[in-house]
Amino acid sequence: GLRNADYGPYTTTNSQTLNEYLSIIPQAASVSASNNIGAHLSHRDQIYVVPFGMTTAEFIVLYKERKEMFEFVNLQLYEVIISDEKIDFYLYKKKLPKVCASCNP
After folding, report:
1. Which runs of E-coded beta strand occur in 1-105?
2. Which of 34, 85, 91, 94 could form a disulfide with 81 if both were Cys (CB 3.0 to 4.6 A apart)?
């Protein structure tokens, strides 16, 4: 039944670019990722499918995601590392806490 199936929508020509982008994420880092890119990250100990983990994970990866999902990214907690509109890929990294220079005890 699948001999003549069209797999075009399920393949990507951006594999090299995606691998380069994903290589930025340290192996031990926790990640919240879109379901359609999660398989590339599934070997990790801490992997979440968005919207889960979008306030606790060290990185958020959105790939070919619905526009509504971007509203869940808290830009006070996360900074944009990659914003590639051409292939619809976005990588966010959790911001480091700010150190108060005048707070020395």
Report:
1. 31-33, 47-49, 59-63, 78-84, 89-94
2. 91
